[in-house]
Design brief:
With about 650 residues, the chain is α/β, with parallel strands linked by helices. The protein is built from 30 helices and 19 strands. The protein is globular. It starts with 6 loop residues before the first helix and ends with a helix. The structure holds a DNA duplex (15 and 10 nucleotides).
DNA sequence: ACGATTTTCAGCATC
DNA sequence: TGAAAATCGT
């Protein structure tokens, strides 16, 4: 990367009087621009506490914080707010909780808990898809900024009315729990800002300059929140790239790029078109591919780098052959070039594709790191322990109660809980309060009643202890006194899995100790934990990176292999049918532009899908790349098919022959 | 209430 | 194919 800014980057940094959209192509140094702009704002006299930078992931926020602290001094960076959209929404709600009808210590339900709560209100016997569809309608309503009452008024058909009423019931239930879901962290602040002028004034005074990263990933609600926060002044910089919009399936709305120009007539647009990452050839291939998509604003990326190595296209027999070849190539290339392992990456469409690759790499003793996978905070043992914390902070959190009361098992089953819920409902008590109430106790049988009482007593003891204990010590005490470890031994059979879960809990403990330093208040800690999704220790180190295309966004590697470039996989089957080809093309574009020096694409003639060996066709996207830049390698798939049947030594061949 | 067995169903995965 | 959910049986 150049030491000084290029003219476009400088223009993006220095423009602080008008609202600004920075169209930042892949590898064009956009993070650099954001960091420098923060420094420039501070230099121009902005107080750090009035400068806000918003990202999508905690990881991005963390990285930005670290880079800013290096650019300006640590002390100067301290008062800055650099966080995710949801964390900003949460901050606002914590300050303005009364206006939102919430009490201090409100809980944040994750997607799972929210769905469970929703399930109880929805008509019984719905299958998973129908339920999720209905739940998504609620999300959509919040995304559009509709209150339950507005949604009911707006419903056109009986089905829509039913969904709107379900939305209303769901919000009532959340309110009873003193809880919000993830959507609410955006929807409620946007609503408050819209309706309460004084509140809006307070926040506009606080946020004097707003920077947004990955702007193409914002949804409607996030845009409305931002619009209210920046007001007519429009002191903001939005950085994004419509060609890297790959999250529309989870609500991102690239149209927001267009609306920005409509809502802020003074909007300036700066394009960052010099790519500092890829070789000339890699960039040319990427440009050729993305040129097949329609564009709102034309942008032409160029690179000052050499042409570089040809792009290779490997034809393979099946996914095992593909994995073996890729692993062998990485193995040899590393030795040959004396590169470090972390300069190599294998990218793929679906998580399941990692398996064959892992196997092949392990066989050669190549260290690797798989990104993504099940998020740390989604693991059941972590959610169990966090449920205790939530319940300590917010006794009305019935979702947390239901989780905590059943892990570890304490002879309280569904029948008991149903009875408890019935009593609690009629007396307008939360489940925990009901469990401790004498009235309710009398209506329960002796044994379950005693078990519930014991549970409530234990929580009360912890609550009292919390005052004099650090958050970390409290969590340690909860884990030990709830006998969670015996619970693990009783429910998990595989001793390796038990060890793994213990490790996770130890990791959580370490995290809480570190996070709670200086803050201490359990309330804040609990809220922070709810927003985190990945383990902080997720340090890949010096290892080959295996990653999905989505998880690879924002990363770069010297040598990239993109595997499974087949119709049905990339583009994915579902996207072909639903005409979402453009997003699939962007996905491939993102993959190609991760590569600095070499790029290898591969596809297999056959692939095992759902247990069946299926014939595959090379991706249609390969035809959109300039043939002159591609170097096709590998065996003729037809000839291989017969060879495969003949080869005596191949175990796979025999299995494949039996199946096929 | 819980473990064992059958059935189902496959994307990407943020906060 | 294989993991997770649903159902069965004690």
């Amino acid at each position: 990367m150049a030491l000084s800014l290029n003219p476009a980057q400088r223009a993006a940094v220095n423009q602080i009087s008008d609202p600004l959209l920075v169209l930042a192509g892949a590898g064009s140094g956009k993070t650099r621009v954001i960091i420098d702009k923060i420094a420039y704002l501070l230099h121009a006299g902005y107080q750090a506490e009035h400068v806000f930078a918003i990202t999508f992931t905690n990881k991005a926020a963390r990285e930005m914080r670290e880079r800013v602290a290096k650019r300006v001094s640590r002390e100067a960076a301290e008062p800055l707010t650099i966080c995710t959209f949801h964390a900003l929404g949460l901050k606002l709600l914590q300050v303005e909780h009364a206006a939102a009808g919430l009490r201090r210590g409100f809980s944040i339900l994750d997607a799972d808990d929210a769905l469970n709560l929703f399930k109880e209100l929805a008509p019984a016997g719905l299958n998973k898809d129908a339920l999720q569809l209905l739940r998504n309608l609620v999300s959509t309503a919040k995304d559009e900024g509709l209150s339950p009452a507005q949604a009911i008024a707006k419903a056109l058909s009986p089905r829509e009315l039913e969904a709107a009423e379900l939305y209303a019931a769901y919000q009532r239930r959340l309110s009873n729990f003193n809880a919000v879901d993830f959507d609410d962290l955006i929807y409620l602040p946007a609503r408050l800002l819209d309706q309460d002028e004084a509140l809006r004034g307070r926040w506009q005074a606080r946020i004097r300059y707003l920077l947004m990263d990955e702007y193409q990933d914002t949804n409607r609600a996030q845009y409305r929140m931002v619009k209210h926060l920046v007001g007519a002044r429009g002191a903001f910089t939005a950085v994004g790239d419509d060609d890297q919009s790959i999250y529309s399936w989870r609500g991102a709305n690239p149209e927001n790029l267009k609306d920005l120009a409509r809502d802020f007539p003074a909007l300036q647009v700066v394009k960052l078109e010099q790519n500092y990452r890829c070789s000339g050839r890699i960039l040319r291939v990427a440009n050729a591919l993305i040129a097949h998509n329609p564009h709102l604003i034309e942008k032409r990326l160029w690179s000052a780098h050499d042409e570089g190595k040809p792009i290779r296209v490997l034809a393979c027999r099946d996914e095992l052959h593909e994995a073996e070849r890729v692993a062998a190539e990485i193995f040899h290339r590393q030795i040959e070039s004396q590169s470090r392992w972390h300069e190599f990456a294998v990218l793929y469409r679906g998580n399941h594709q990692a398996r064959a690759l892992e196997q092949a790499l392990r066989l050669l003793g190549v260290p690797y790191h798989v990104s993504g996978g099940t998020a740390f905070f989604e693991r059941s043992e972590i959610k169990d322990v966090l449920a205790y914390l939530r319940l300590l902070v917010n006794p009305d959190d019935d979702a947390a109660f239901l989780r905590a009361v059943q892990a570890p098992k304490r002879e309280i089953g569904t029948t008991t809980l149903e009875k408890l819920a019935l009593c609690a409902g009629s007396k307008h008590l939360s489940l925990l309060h009901a469990a401790a109430s004498m009235d309710v106790q009398q209506q329960l049988a002796a044994r379950p009643g005693a078990a519930l009482m014991q549970f409530a007593d234990q929580l009360e003891r912890w609550r009292l202890a919390a005052a004099s204990l650090s958050a970390g010590d409290l969590v340690a005490r909860v884990i030990s006194e709830s006998h969670y470890d015996s619970h693990l031994q009783a429910t998990v059979k595989d001793p390796v899995a038990i060890g793994y879960r213990r490790d996770n809990l130890a990791e959580l403990l370490r995290f809480v100790h570190a996070a709670a330093k200086g803050r201490g208040a359990l309330v804040d800690l609990q809220a922070e934990l709810a927003l985190l999704s990945f383990s902080e220790r997720d340090e890949p180190g010096n290892a080959v990176r295996l990653s999905t295309l989505h998880a690879a966004k924002g990363l770069e590697f010297a040598h990239v292999w993109l595997v499974g470039v087949e119709d049905g996989n990339l583009p994915h089957e579902g996207s072909i049918n639903e005409g979402r080809l453009e997003e699939e093309r962007r996905l491939m574009y993102v993959a190609i532009t991760r590569a600095k020096a070499t790029l290898t694409l591969s596809y297999a003639a056959h692939r095992r899908r759902f247990g069946e060996l299926e014939r595959q066709q090379p991706s249609r996207f390969l035809d959109e790349l300039p043939a002159a830049d591609l170097q096709r390698e590998g065996d003729d798939p037809e000839r291989d098919a017969s060879e495969r049947r003949d080869r005596a030594g191949s175990h796979l061949a025999r299995i494949a022959a039996l199946l096929g």
